[in-house]
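ERR on first pass: missing label on line 2. Operator R.T. fixed the label and resubmitted. Corrected input:
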Amino acid sequence: MDLDYSKIGLKCGLEIHQQLDTRKLFCNCPSLLRKDEPDFKIKRKLHAVAGQSGEVDEAAIYQVSLDKNFIYEGYDSTCLVELDESPPLEINKDALKIAMQISILLNAKIFPLTQIMRKTVIDGSNTSGFQRTVLIARDGFVETKFGKVGIESICLEEDSARIIQNTDKESFYRLDRLGIPLVEIATAPDIKNPQQAKEVALHIGKILRLFKVKRGLGTIRQDVNVSIKKGARVEIKGVQKPELIEKSVELEAKRQLNLIEKKQNVKSEVRKVLPSGETEFLRPMPGASRMYPETDLPLLKISRAMIDGAKKNLPELKDESEELLKLGLNHEMIKLVLDEEKIEEFKEIESILKNPRIAVKILITYPKEIASKEKIPPEKSEEIFDYEILKFVAELVAGKKISEEQIKNVFERIANGETKENAIKFEKSDANDAEEKIRGIIKEKPGLSENAYMGLVMSAFKGKISGKEVMEIIKKYAK
Amino acid sequence: MDNKKPSLGDRVEIHLSKIIYEGVLLEVPESEKGIILLKLDSGYNIGFNKKDILQIKFLKREKQKQKEFEIKKDPSKPNVAMIITGGTIASRYDSRTGGVDALTKPEELFKYYPELFEKANVVKAEVPFMKSSEDMDFRDWQKIAKVAEKFLNDGNIKGVIITHGTDTLHYTSAALSFFLRNLNKPVVLTYSQRSIDRASSDANLNLRCAALAAISDIAEVMLVGHGTTNDDFCYAMPGTKVRKMHTSRRDAFKTINSKPFAKIFPDRIEIISGHKKRNSGKAKSDLKFEEKIALIKVYPGQDENILDYYLKNKYKGLILETTGLGHVPSKKAWLNKLKEIQEKGIIVCATAQTIYGRLDPLVYSNGRKILEAGVIFLEDMLSETALVKLGWVLGHGDWAKNRETVKEKMLTNFAHELNERLQE
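pass 2 clean. output:
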């Protein structure tokens, strides 16, 4: 089971992409991920672009895209920059400041003069045909129990459009995600064992959470690079949780070892992580992408004064478990919240409910329970129990619009495809109506204990009324 | 090797006091003096202030790969000629040096726009000059017209495509509409709003549709460009009735107070409105031009004495871009000034700053007085077209010597610049 990682020469590096919760990187649109139907669609084509030495060397790659129609779906929160109909505005100051502050906390050195680049993108996921990206800092490090891990680079880049549907002839992309600022942190291949990989991810995650970052499914994306002696560099895409990082590094090391033992060749490739931590082939390792300057913007100058300004109000790294303890969570629940990396979400929901116990249930326990009962895979479950939905439910509970007992019921309905608006509709148990019904039940079977009536009533109402309410009524009529 | 002076595109080491960077030396934009740019192996570019650099050490000269291109001529396809004048559509980024240069040969065009050659052979390409369109003047319009005339009268060529910057493209299209008389073949102007380095550039559809327009039967000067934000069709718009209506959108050019000649898809043309047909006649250029003309926008509270400048500097004609139906401030001083400059020989014409619609001086008494003062009301003519036309009309000495002849010519429809029936 336990491998001697130094003996097999494990080398591992992480690449972490975190969405920021500022306006978009090169326009003033809100970074709003939308669930409603788009307001309009536009149709575009891509064409071959001649490469560096003049020949259309990328033509082959493009060929697939050439005959394709790209349909971009936009909203009232979309502007001409996202439609590739207007030059980019200057880089968002808030996002730049956050990237600088993250760089400082990762002990990296900020470039005083850097250029915003266009990275060629060929799949249509950017309306422009490229992704804007800029190198902010280099040569940082984080300390771990197993030693220092270098941070090679910190970049600020725009997120791509979300793919909605893909056929041979058409790809549909939604523009809400396009342009959301992403901080990209790339570690050096200094990580020497799976636990260290997890530790680095947790540490960086903790730093990222100090800032205005987006939360919820897909807002942080982690790629893991793994190789062993005589093996090859494999990139594992889309690892969401630190737990899974540890597991996937371990399993990838074993996979490569296994191939080497069987005298098979380990191919350098991109693999996709599965919920078990195992991986499957995704695509061959891509070549270096073509990058050239964003000619619509001047050089980015980061002055001494800007760096000093960023240093001045640097958030402090907090002891998160201490904080959670103060909010009234027990150790078991603290571990749950920390492992799920839902500290900020917990604090917010707790502040709505003023009840840490219910907050954990809404945020973690119930969604997990229902997902496992209904056999919903984890990614899907995060999508269903989106943070906005959880917050919505917490607010209703806080406003006494639904009762604690009804939460699970609401979640079940949502898991079964109800809209959130419908899921919270209970035949209210119109106070009078309910009272009438309860009186009827008591009349029918006189002389039972309060708890016995409670059981009868609750089963008759099937959770559509809160226990507290029922008890009050029972107390009124049962003698 | 060490003492070799590094030049753009070379692999170098940049020595700072604490760190050495390795990468490729790049060209720095003109606006960034005192800076050195380096492309790192990761692809990112970073900059240095020259004063922070201890040494730039030459490492290696990167070999320049140059592949020669050959365009295969397909004898079954019609031939077209191109006139390349500059602008985004003909600029490319040189990633080796970081500079920008121009596409000037058919081979290069083929490299960048293979689809242009789908329906036609580009057999000739001429570059009378390379300019951003904001730097052009009537002499440049004359040069383009000269080359166009030559191509139009070449029996081997079916039509002419002109690539051009967008800023003043509609001035050039108006000028060519007046300069090129007795038109026998299509003259197609086109552009791009998005640089050609990107897979999303609008140049591609514009050029494909321009090629189709150039081999069509529409013997007109027209501007071909995106009809909407979508990459599905272009409009062929009359050279005198088109205007840049947006700073950045693909469909920046709109037909004003008229209709496009045609809607052009990459594979077909749908005719929309009447046009002159391709014919076997001989095109003839008429390049006369008077440059002492000006376009003046009227605004509230404007001091009429600014017109003295034009008088003093011997201007021959003015286009006043008037408010509403054709007004200037109604105070007497304005009217008197208009009378005075006309008496001293300046031709004064009026156009509408509303852009859309026709002037009507008869509705308000202010308008009637301006009309009585002798101002020529140019109906629904676009201000930019009116300016170019005034220069062309006044360039003809025999017309210019008589006020009435000038008025008559300004109100004669030479190239669709006037529309008797506004429908929108």
